[in-house]
Amino acid sequence: MINLNPDFGQVLTPDTVAEMMIKRSLSYLKNKKLSILDPAIGPATFLKAINKLKLNIKNFDGYDIDNRMCIISNEYCSKLKYKNKIFNEDFLLNNNQTFYDFVILNPPYIRQEKLSTEYKKKLKEVLKLRNIKVNGRSNLFIYFLFKCLSKLEKNGILCAIIYDSILNTKYGKEFWDYLSNNFKILEKKSISTPFNKTIIDATIIIVSNQSSSKKFSIENNSKNVRNNYVKLSELLKIQRGITLSSRKVFLSHKNDGDIYKKSLPIIMKPKIKDKLNIEYPDQRFYNFGQDKDVDSFLINKAKSIDIDIKIKPVKLIFGKIIFNYYIRNSPKHYFNSKNLNTSDNFYVSTVKDSFPEIIAFLLLNTELFVNSFLDSSRNQGNGLRKLQVYEYKNTFVPDWRTLSKSELSSLNKCAYSLLIGNKNINQIQFLVNDLLIKSFL
Ligand SMILES: C[S@@+](CC[C@H](N)C(=O)[O-])C[C@H]1O[C@@H](n2cnc3c(N)ncnc32)[C@H](O)[C@@H]1O
C-alpha cells in the first residue's frame, strides 16, 4: 500500500465508486473506439475499472506529478494491448494538443493558499484561459476541470468526482455557471463520504461537450442554479466589538471594592463548549462618563500604574451575532442572546431587513456559509486563520432574503434546537443541508 501525499491532493477513489462512474458514463459514450484521458491517474484506479467493464479503447493517456504513482500505473499498463502512455508531468502545465472522447478524473483537491502565486500565474498563462476568468481563490481541482473540458472532442464526455465545495464556494459557483452555460450537464449525483477515512461528501458530474439547448435542472432537486449570492455586509450590520484603550485599567476586579458594582458586563474570551449560545459575560469593565466615582477611580488607577488612557466614554457596541475572527478549521458564529457588550475579540452584528436573528445565526454556522468564510480567510500558520473585518464584510454568501416563508419556518425550528443546545451543529447541518442546497444551488 502506497503512502498518500496530501501535498499532491492524493485521495483515492474506492473501486466501487470508480466502477459506478464508468458504468454511468458508458450510457453516453458512443459505441466507437475511444481515446481516453485520466489527468490525475494515481495508481490507475479508473483505468482498472475501465478494463474491468471492457470499454472499447483506441488509446489511453494518464498523468501524475508523483513518480511513484507513474511507476505503479506503468506497471499495470505494460500488460495492456492498446496504445497507452503515462506522463510523469504536471498535467496543468503540459502543452499537449491532444483531444479525447472520454476524460475521467478525481482531481487533486488543494486549497489556493497552498498554491504559490508564481504557480497560479503560470497556470493562468499556460491554460490560456483568455476568455475564462478563473477566480484567483479557486482550489486546484477547478483548474483541472477547466483544462479537462478544453481537452474534450466534440460530443466528448467528461466524468469527474469532486468535493462538495464546488457547490458552496463562490469560485465553485462561478465554475458551475460556466459549465452550465457552455456544456451539457448530463448527470449530477451527490454521494455521501465516498473516500476512505475522509469525512467529505462529493458530487459526481457527467458532462458532454455539446452546448445545452435546454438548461440543466439539478437531478436531485430540480431547481436551476440561482444567482443569489451577496456580500455579507448586505445582510448584516457589522462592527468590531468594544476596544478598551487599556485592559489593565478598564477591566474590573472583585477586589476593587464597592465600585465593582458599577462596572458593566462584557464578553471578552468566554470558555465555549459545544453550545453556541453565550448567556453570561466572562468579565466586567468600567466606562467613563456615567458615574463620577468611576471616572476618578479610573484616572487614579491609570496614574498609579503609569498608563496613558483616553478620558472619554467608549462607544458601546451591541449585537446578537458575534464572530471570533481568529479561526481554526471551523469558523463559528455565537449567539449573544442577552445582547451583552462584546469586546473587540469579536465582530458584532445585527441582522438587517428584519430577518429573524436566530435563523441568521443558524445559517452562518452551516457548511454553505462556513466554506465561504474559510475561503475569505488568510492563513496565519499553525492551523490558525484570520478574517480581517473587510474580508468578513466582503465574503460572498447565499442571500437568505430569498428564502420562502415555509423554508423559514423549518429553519426556525432547527435554529431554536441549536440555540437551546438540544442538537449540535452537525446534527442540525444534516437536517438543513437538503433545504439549503435546494434553495441556494
Ligand atoms: C485525488 S488523486 C486521484 C487518484 C486516482 N485517479 C483515484 O481516483 O484514485 C489525484 C492524483 O493527482 C496527482 N496530481 C496532483 N497534482 C497533479 C498535477 N498538477 N498534475 C498531474 N497529477 C497531479 C496526485 O499525485 C494524485 O495521484
Helix count equals 15
Hetero groups in this structure are:
S-adenosylmethionine
Q: Which architecture of the largest domain per CATH?
A: Alpha-Beta Complex
CATH superfamily of the largest domain: DNA methylase specificity domains
Q: Please bin the fraction of helical residues.
A: 25-40%
Strand order of the largest sheet: 3-2-1-4-5-7-6
If you consult CATH, what is the topology of the largest domain? Answer: Adenine-n6-DNA-methyltransferase TaqI, Chain A, domain 2
Sheet having the most strands: 7 strands, mixed
Radius of gyration, CA atoms, in whole angstroms: 27 Å
Number of strands: 19
Instruction: Describe the global form.
Output: elongated
Keywords:
single chain, 441 residues, alpha/beta, Adenine-n6-DNA-methyltransferase TaqI, Chain A, domain 2, seven-stranded mixed β-sheet, four-stranded antiparallel β-sheet, binds S-adenosylmethionine
Q: Can you offer a commentary on this structure?
A:
With 441 residues, the protein is of the alpha/beta class. The protein folds into two domains: 6-208, 3-Layer(aba) Sandwich (Rossmann fold); 229-440, DNA methylase specificity domains (Adenine-n6-DNA-methyltransferase TaqI, Chain A, domain 2, Alpha-Beta Complex), CATH 3.90.220. The chain is 33% helix and 21% strand. It contains 15 helices and 19 strands. It has a seven-stranded mixed sheet, with helices on both faces. Helix 1 crosses helix 2 (45-52), helix 11 crosses helix 14 (405-419) and helix 14 packs antiparallel against helix 15 (425-440). The radius of gyration is 27 Å and the shape is elongated. Residues 212-227 have low confidence and may be disordered.
